[in-house]
Amino acid sequence: MQLKIKEAKRVIDKLEMRGREGNDTLCYFYHEGKMTNIFTRIPHKNGDLKGKLPDFIRQQLKLNEEDFLNLKKCSLSKEGYIEILKEKGIID
Amino acid sequence: MNYTFLQKRPLFLYDKVSNSSQSLDEVVFSENYLENSRGLLIFNLSSDKIYLKNAPLFIDRDVDEDGNIIYSNSDLEIFGYGDTDEEARADFEKVLEDLYICFNQEKEKNNLHNNAIPLWNLLDNILKEK
Question: Considering only CB atoms, which residues of chain B are within 8 Å of chain A?
């Protein structure tokens, strides 16, 4: 699986993930105002992420490949993502 | 979430050290070991903000098809990467530091979601702020 940096940033923006102020290492997913155990990072490389890195990001977002592709392609919304997390019992 | 990482210490390393004049750090980070290994131990962090109170921390080391060296810990679900082992380790430690500090801040504000508590407990078990 390949992931462009701009695609990764778009996913993070779509999910409204937040970084710690003044630090861009990790972005965290908040649900109902509280920080969850879901986080990932904005890659600091330029260009495409290949190899295992896109899969690490996908796993951090707790998604299978199909759902991650849908998130990347914009056919899965933040609300849809939350539904998936609920179905998996990750959030209630 | 569990604490199995504490049991993942490759004991053969201790055997190797006991039969060698090298320290455990020297053995773990020796070139030959890294070339042949899928896992290694971290005893110290270079961070000026946090330190390992339960060392060592076991990390997996992979090299993917694009040559990225990836350091990861499956219990914490974090990874760091780079073109060299030094870069990957520094990146991993930066992520670990960010994770701990952010979780600690949110915990202080009582702003952790219930599903984040086990991860915070794990982080709190292995790390401490300086």
Answer: 62, 64-68, 70, 72, 77, 79, 81, 94-95, 98-99, 101-103, 105-106, 111-116, 118-119
Please give the structure tokens belonging to residue B97: 């530091």
ipTM: 0.90
> How many alpha carbons fall within 13 Å on the CB side of residue A67?
18
CA distance A79 to B5: 34
Of B70, B95, B119, the CB nearest to A37: B119
Give the model confidence (pLDDT) of B52-73 as tens digits.
998 889 899 988 888 888 999 9
Taking a C-beta distance cutoff of 8 angstroms, is the pair A5, A45 a contact? yes
- Measured from the Cβ of residue B101, the count of other Cβ atoms closer than 10 Å reads 20
pTM of this structure: 0.82
The reply to whether residue A20 touches residue B102, judged by beta carbons under 8 angstroms, is yes
Q: What digits encode the pLDDT tens for the residues A26-61?
A: 999 999 999 999 999 876 667 788 788 899 999 999
Interface test with chain A among B62, B83, B112, B115, by most A beta carbons within 10 Å: B115
Q: Do A37 and B116 touch (CB under 8 A)?
A: yes
